[in-house]
Design brief:
Length: 353
């Protein structure tokens, strides 16, 4: 038991000593606390806080400035965007207008592109219609008579008079002009060609130079012959917008064919028909006949043909007078005066007079 109390006593004593020591340390600590350091730490903390507050304010100000700038920027950009949108609308409207104009222009161009084909087609259909009539006349089915009055070597100084005379005879009288650029001199050839075309006459090819005597350009070689036909074709196309389809040999097909074998085949290769005549006014020889004689020849010779092809010349004044007299007489006999088409039955035979 004594031992037990001794142990308890020792423990209590130790605890009392420890408590006394702790109290002594606490009092000592309190007595020796460095107030200076404590105040310095407070000041430092306050300064740090102040610095942070300053930084925060500065940051906020900067942020607000940026926001202001951005707001202004957005306003400016907005104004620009509105202006841009307006100009885009204007551009779109202008583009739409251009698109419409382009569409119209394209349609017009397509029409123009198709026009020569359409005209050529219409011309061919008309030619085929007349061919039908010719076939009926030749077979005796029709009592109608046709006269193709042809005039060679123009345009000349009197082509205008021929055209005026034909106009006076009414819209149903048409002739065929076998034209040659170099056959005669005249001031207003191109105007005459256009007028012939516009009046519904047939405008055809009679070589470019008309230089057809032996050694001349027309029959000197097949190459030269081709060039003569092509140059006249091109000239007529440039002036009238149409390619002719019928060729007349200067001097006649017999003359040309004898001088230049192969010329007829070459013409076919070039897409041409050729036409001579079965009535001849003989108005281009050494001795020129009177108008009365020419008129007599026109009426008597044509009357022998169901389909007459009369040869006359575009430079002979007597021929003009004879034509004015002969046409009404032949009309009385049932002849219609038509322009010559490549589809005609009168293509490809040598002159019979
Ligand atoms: Zn001629």
């Amino acid at each position: 038991m004594r031992v037990f109390f001794r142990v308890i006593n020792s423990i209590l004593l130790t605890a009392a000593l420890l408590a006394a020591g702790f109290c002594a340390y606490y009092v000592y600590s309190y007595m020796t606390f460095p107030a200076d350091r404590y105040h310095a730490e407070i000041s430092a903390t306050e300064a740090e806080t102040e610095r942070l507050r300053g930084e925060t304010v500065a940051a906020r100000e900067e942020t607000e400035q940026r926001l202001d700038f951005l707001r202004a920027d957005i306003r400016n950009n907005g104004a620009e965007a509105v202006a841009l949108a307006d100009s885009i609308d204007e551009m779109k409207a202008a583009q739409a207008e251009k698109d419409v104009k382009l569409q119209e222009a394209q349609e017009e161009a397509a029409l123009l592109r198709d026009m020569p084909g359409a005209v050529e087609n219409a011309r061919r259909q008309y030619g085929l219609k007349i061919r039908e009539l010719e076939d009926k006349i030749l077979s005796g089915e029709s009592e109608v008579r046709i006269c193709y009055w042809t005039l060679d070597d123009g345009p000349t100084f009197i082509t205008k008079d021929f055209l005026d005379a034909l106009d006076e005879m009414g819209e149903h009288v048409h002739v065929t002009f076998f034209t040659a650029n170099g056959a005669n001199e005249s001031k207003d050839e191109e105007e005459m060609l256009r007028r012939e075309m516009m009046s519904g006459h047939s405008v055809q090819n009679h070589t470019f130079s008309h230089d057809y005597w032996e050694g001349g350009q027309v029959y000197i070689s097949l190459d030269s012959f081709r060039e003569q036909v092509e140059k006249q074709d091109e000239w007529l196309y440039q002036v009238t917008g149409f390619h002719p389809g019928i060729f007349r040999f200067p001097g006649g097909a017999a003359w040309g064919g004898d001088l230049l074998p192969g010329a007829k085949d070459l013409l076919r290769e070039m897409g041409y028909e050729w036409a001579d005549w079965n009535c001849n006014l003989y108005d281009a020889g050494q001795e020129l006949p009177t108008a009365a004689l020419e008129e007599y020849r026109a009426i008597t010779q044509a009357s022998e043909e169901k389909i007459a092809v009369i040869l006359g010349h575009d430079w002979n004044m007597q021929t003009l007078i004879a034509m004015k007299g002969a046409i009404p007489v032949l009309q009385e006999k049932g002849y219609v005066f038509l322009p010559l088409f490549p589809e005609s039955a009168m293509m490809g035979f040598n002159a019979t007079r």
